[in-house]
C-alpha cells in the first residue's frame, strides 16, 4: 500500500471514529451521572446486537488508525524502515484488534 493510501486510510478511520467517540463519551457521562454500577451497565449491554456492532466497528476503526500512526512513529522515532517497520506495526495492530474484539465480546455476549 502506498504512503498516500495509508494517509487516506488513517484520515478515513479518524472520520469514522469521531461519531463513535462522541457517543461513547456521552454514554459514559450518562452512566456515571446516573450512578450505574458495572453490573447494571453489563445488564444493558449483554445480548445487545446494537452495542456489539457499535463497539465492534469502533474497535476496527481504532485498530486501523492506531496501526498506521504507530507505523509512522516507528519510522520517525525508532528508525525502523521497510518490512521491519510494517511487520512490527502490523503485529501490534493485530494485537490491538484482538484485545478490542475480546473486550467487545465480554461486554456484549
Share in β-strands: under 5%
Biggest pleated-sheet summary: none
Overall SS class: mainly alpha
CATH superfamily: Fumarate reductase/succinate dehydrogenase, transmembrane subunit
The termini sit apart by 35 Å
Question: What's the CATH topology name?
Answer: 3 helical TM bundles of succinate and fumarate reductases
Topology record:
Blueprint: H1 3-33, H2 38-45, H3 49-76, H4 82-108
Helix pairs in contact: 1-3, 3-4
Structure description:
This protein has 109 residues and is mainly alpha-helical. The chain has one domain (3-108): 3 helical TM bundles of succinate and fumarate reductases, CATH 1.20.1300. Helix content is 86%, strand content 0%. It is built from 4 helices and no strands. The chain has helices spanning 3-33, 38-45, 49-76, 82-108. It is elongated and about 50 Å long. The N and C termini lie far apart (35 Å). 12% of the residues are buried. The model has no long low-confidence stretch (mean pLDDT 95).
Amino acid at each position: 500500500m502506498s504512503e498516500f493510501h495509508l494517509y487516506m486510510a488513517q484520515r478515513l478511520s479518524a472520520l469514522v471514529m469521531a461519531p463513535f467517540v462522541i457517543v461513547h463519551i456521552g454514554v459514559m457521562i450518562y452512566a456515571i451521572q446516573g450512578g450505574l454500577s458495572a453490573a447494571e451497565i453489563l445488564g444493558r449491554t449483554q445480548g445487545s446486537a446494537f452495542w456489539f456492532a457499535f463497539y465492534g466497528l469502533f474497535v476496527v476503526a481504532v485498530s486501523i488508525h492506531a496501526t498506521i500512526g504507530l507505523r509512522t512513529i516507528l519510522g520517525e522515532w525508532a528508525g525502523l524502515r521497510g518490512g521491519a517497520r510494517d511487520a512490527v506495526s502490523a503485529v501490534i495492530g493485530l494485537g490491538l484488534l484482538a484485545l478490542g474484539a475480546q473486550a467487545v465480546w465480554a461486554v456484549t455476549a
